[in-house]
Structure formats: structure tokens, C-alpha cells
Design brief:
By secondary structure, this protein is mainly beta. It has helices at about 90, 150-155, 185, 205-210, 240-245, 260-265, 275-285; strands spanning about 5-10, 25, 30-35, 35-45, 50-55, 60, 70, 75-80, 80-85, 105-110, 120, 130, 155-165, 170, 190, 195-200, 340-345, 365, 385, 405, 415, 420.
Length: about 425
């Protein structure tokens, strides 16, 4: 006799920014149990929704990791109607679990334009799954001491975290004039982003690129024959190789055969590189220190691969490392500084910002052209913006406000993906 569950509870997540909130019909929720399996039946009304669920005992969750084997109409977009979730307790606990006192299942619906915090994309099928927390990801994220080379979240799947940015005013750039401070690109200004967005928790890897692009790698990929190459940031891609169209922001479409185009078609979600403002907002992770979690470069080696810690002692050459093997920033995003320098969606600026005096009352909304001055040359060429520094650069290049620029791809250049929250 299974005695795990005594009741079921329903919840609907709502926000003023969300679409019409789907609802769960309480009278249609039923819990049934047979040895080794629990089934939660529910009915969704009004609109499609992402559905998640939890199990509480004495009002406290048993932990998202224990629910990662849940199957059925859960952790994905669900259409209205009668639906079921199944869960196998014996797979969640070692041996025969004890009876959970005063337990209940909590089913939650999320509007499709306000999905949960984590999105996982299967790069082969394009199927998208959604989870309320990092701990809920099936199998969990592999730490630096685990098998990162064969970790599906670094090779065949893509994990993105939702960043809450809508309406928040923050300072982009830096008041602290470091030795390499560049007035053209780092002058401080107040910025507001008008939407939350998802961003990849890792830089895009060779393994992910091969999975997405049917086994192919960039033509000149520099580290393809390394034993752990699948977990390395993909490189040797110019911005046009990644998105296939450099007319952004005039034309924001991506090329159909580019990696961003293939990913967008496969999932039905518009993916792209992050804008420069999105990138810096994530790098700062809610703070205003020059190095993210740190005011100076002291200790930056805990968070970044750069020239002081990435050199191979045998070859005396700086090398990239598998993604996610340093500590994440305050929002759980890895390698925002160092490892691969990352392409963003803006042109590199070579004109002084239009205002020479910092004005905290002047707020730029969704800046699309850096400093409101595009430096694209008349022949269509120009330096695209890169951010974050790399494994070959000095610590000073890892500052959150520091800009780089390039026309072509290189061994130290990579990217990560972003999209707006619209579940499919």
C-alpha cells in the first residue's frame, strides 16, 4: 500500500506582465498510487501553460532533485484538457523510502510568456523543457570535478536561465577609470531593459555545435582533436557565421542556415546572441563592482580562465578549458569573464559618447547601437563588439565594462545564446 500522498494542491503563477493566466481545475485533480508509481491527474483550462509540480511534506518541499524523474504532462508546454503526471518515488530515494508525513502534491501552471526560471533545449529534437529551479534539472549539473566532457548539458542540450530585467534601471559602463579605461566604450550611462530574457548558463560548446549542425564544426576549429574538445567553447566563428546577418538592428532576422537560424527553426523560438546591454547586465549580476563579484582583479582566478591560470606548463601556451569549470557569478552563469571572449550584437564604437557629463536622470531604453552611434563602415564592414576577455588576455580585460572588437573569428572568440521568454 502506497501511503505517500494525502492531498493535492493547485497553484497558478501570475504576473501583470503575463498573458491571460491559465487555470487548474481543482475538482478534476486526482491522486492515485500503485507500488512504485504515483499519478497526479489534473485539468488545465483557458490557455496553454508550462506545468511544474512539487511534493511537500509538512509544508516543506522534498527537494526538486527528487522529482527529476517526473514524466507526462509536466515541465513543458501543456495544452488545455485533462492531463497526468507520473512520478516514481523509488528512483528518487535510496532503498525503500519512509512514509512522508502530511504529504501533498502541488501542481503549478505558468503562462507561456512567463515560463519558469530554467529552460533546457534538446539540440537534436528542438524540444524545450522548463524547470522552476536549477536543482530540478534531471541528473543535475555536473560540477568541475565530474565528467564534463560527456555532460549532456554541455554537449547535446542547452541550459538557459531566465534573467529578470524588465523595468530595472542600472548603470552600464564604469566610473572607475582603470589603466586601460576607454572613454569611447566605457563611459557610464543609465540603462533600462524592457523585457526579461533567457541566457545560456555556459558558452556554446563544440559538442553543442556538432549536435545542432549535424556533426559539423567550424571550418578552422582550433581545438577539435583534443580529448575534451566537446566541452570547450566553440571558436573560429565570425559574427556573421553565428547569425548569418550583420544588418542588426535594422534587420533582426537571422540567416536560416546559420547556427542561430537552425536553432530558431528547430525550437520555434527566436534565438540570437545577447545584446551588449543584456550581456553586461548578466555579467554584473545585480552589482556594480568592476569585476562582477569583485572590486579588483584579486581573486578573479576563482571565476575566470585568463592568461595567468590557463597556460599549459608543457607547451607554455594559453589554452581554453571546458565550460563551467570555474565558479559561476552571483546569478549562476559561468565563464562570463575569461575562457572565450564572447560576441555581442553591437558594432564597436569609435566615437566619444554623445554626453561628456554623466547624467543619472537620462535613461537609455534597450540600447541597440552602442552610445547611439553605429560605426558600421559604408562598405558594410566594421568591428563587432566582443565582451568578457579570454583565456589569452590579462586580468584587466575581464572587467564587466571592458569592450573588445573584431571583424573575424579567432581561437579565443566564442558566443552564448539568448532569447526572450516565450515557451513553445
Amino acid at each position: 500500500m502506497n501511503r505517500f500522498f494525502l492531498s493535492a494542491t493547485l497553484a497558478s503563477f501570475a504576473s501583470v506582465a503575463c498573458a491571460a493566466t491559465p487555470t487548474l481545475k481543482d475538482s478534476e485533480t486526482v491522486l492515485t498510487a500503485v507500488p512504485g508509481k504515483v499519478t497526479v491527474s489534473y485539468e488545465l483550462e483557458q490557455a496553454p501553460a508550462v506545468v511544474t509540480f512539487d511534493i511537500l511534506t509538512n509544508g516543506v518541499s522534498i527537494g526538486a532533485a527528487a522529482l527529476s524523474n517526473a514524466a507526462g504532462d509536466v515541465n513543458k508546454v501543456v495544452q488545455p484538457g485533462k492531463r497526468t503526471i507520473t512520478w516514481k518515488p523509488h528512483k528518487a530515494f535510496a532503498g525503500d523510502p519512509a512514509v512522508l508525513p502530511n504529504a501533498c502534491a502541488v501542481v503549478t501552471s505558468w503562462p507561456t510568456n512567463c515560463p519558469p526560471d530554467y529552460m533546457v533545449v534538446d539540440l537534436t529534437s528542438g524540444e524545450c523543457s522548463y524547470y522552476a529551479s536549477r536543482e530540478a534539472l534531471p541528473g543535475g549539473l555536473v560540477g568541475a570535478d565530474g565528467d564534463v566532457v560527456h555532460d549532456p548539458y554541455r554537449t547535446t542540450k542547452l541550459v538557459l536561465k531566465k534573467i529578470r530585467a524588465d523595468g530595472i534601471v542600472w548603470m552600464m559602463g564604469d566610473h572607475v577609470k582603470a589603466a586601460d579605461y576607454n572613454v569611447y566604450t566605457e563611459y557610464p550611462r543609465m540603462v533600462r531593459l524592457s523585457s526579461d530574457f533567457y541566457i545560456g548558463i555556459y558558452e556554446f560548446t563544440q559538442g553543442q555545435y556538432k549536435t545542432l549542425m549535424d556533426g559539423k564544426l567550424p571550418k578552422n576549429e582550433a581545438f577539435a582533436d583534443w580529448d575534451y574538445s566537446d566541452a570547450l567553447p566553440v571558436n573560429m566563428l565570425a559574427a556573421e557565421d553565428i547569425r548569418g546577418n550583420l544588418d542588426w538592428p535594422t534587420n533582426k532576422a537571422v540567416g536560416a542556415s546559420s547556427p542561430m537560424g537552425v536553432l530558431s527553426q528547430r525550437t520555434g523560438i527566436a534565438f540570437d546572441m545577447p545584446t551588449e546591454a543584456q550581456w553586461e547586465y548578466v555579467c554584473r549580476a545585480g552589482g556594480n563592482l568592476s569585476y562582477g563579484r569583485l572590486p579588483t582583479a584579486t581573486g578573479i582566478g576563482d571565476y575566470a580562465w585568463y592568461n595567468a591560470n590557463s597556460t599549459n606548463a608543457q607547451t607554455n601556451a594559453a589554452e581554453p578549458h571546458p565550460v563551467g569549470t570555474k565558479k559561476p557569478n552571483a546569478w549562476g552563469i559561468y565563464d562570463m569573464q575569461g575562457n572565450a571572449e564572447e560576441w555581442c550584437l553591437l558594432w564597436q564604437c569609435n566615437t566619444v559618447y554623445s554626453s561628456s557629463v554623466f547624467d543619472s536622470t537620462r535613461v537609455v531604453v534597450d540600447p541597440e547601437v552602442k552610445f547611439e552611434n553605429s560605426q558600421k563602415a559604408s562598405d558594410g564592414t566594421g568591428y563587432r563588439c566582443t565582451r568578457g576577455g579570454s583565456y589569452v588576455g590579462a586580468a584587466e580585460l575581464l572587467r564587466c565594462a571592458k569592450h573588445g572588437g573584431s571583424r573575424a573569428g579567432g581561437k579565443n572568440l566564442g558566443f552564448r545564446v539568448a532569447c526572450y521568454p516565450q515557451a513553445r
